Amino acid sequence: MNRGLILLLFLAVLVSCKPKQQATENSVAGSPKTIAVVNNGNVKFDSYFKDKTMRLDYFHSGTTAEEHFAVDQTVNDGIWSGSKSVLIDRLELGPYFFEVIDKESKVLLYSHGFANVFGEWQSVPEAKTQWGTFHESLRFPWPLKPVTVLVKRRDAGNKFAAIWSTDIDPASRQVNPAELVHTNKVDVLMENGPASEKLDMVILGDGYSKAEMEKFRKDAKRLTGALFNTEPFKTRINAKENLSRRIGNAKTMVQPGCRSAHAATARSRWQTHLSRNAGACLPHEPDRTRSKHRTMDRNS
Fold this sequence. Notes:
- The chain has 300 residues and is of the alpha+beta class.
- The chain contains 6 helices and 13 strands.
- It folds into 2 domains: 45-176, CATH 2.60.40.3250; 186-299, no CATH class.
- Strands 9-11-10-12-13 form a 5-stranded mixed beta sheet. It has a 4-stranded mixed beta sheet with strand order 5-1-2-8. It has a 4-stranded antiparallel beta sheet with strand order 4-3-6-7, with no helix packed on it.
């Protein structure tokens, strides 16, 4: 009798433990709604987009075992600086991938692979026991109609699996369409065609004071000459390079497809453009100036 009672208690403990294990497995970012995406290749830009950039800011939080997303804001990030003909990313590089899908027809409008700091955070020992939150941004052409933004991540089989989605209505009061205001001064060092067809390179003077503008200008011209005398740029010189005379709060960036340095650097927020920029910093400005810049940008 006692043995039978003990056996029943043992089975009850096993059954009660099972749901807990299942809950732990499902605690990794919940699967978003299933979307039967229609991929017709690159769509006609003017049929689905305005010549502006929509920037979706969000918070990316989690540990080594799980990750979660929360929308911060959706704003106008200036004119669209990328290609208007190649809208679908077929290279699929990076650990993450996002798609912009027409909400009504489910047609794929835009996609791009990217990497982020959160992925690095998950690889450090602290992420096993602590939570981390990172502010990230996705940039894409401004849609004419409501869209669904779908974020994917590579799974164990190296295939992209959907982990988060959010709907955006460009006419919603939660979307800020206000035009980007800037006061940047720009010197054009080289121009060989429209930005939609060329690669724009923007040199930002990080560490140069106002009194050193002439030195910055000479250094930038020298750098441009050296760069375009080196392969692969030497034989592909049909590019366009802009010099921005922005002081004290910027960094050197190489950004594909910016129409002008005004558009590329007007709101060079420290946490913005993660998915599309690559760059190397010149000497840093004092921390006091950088902190002030960050505070102003985060409250703008």
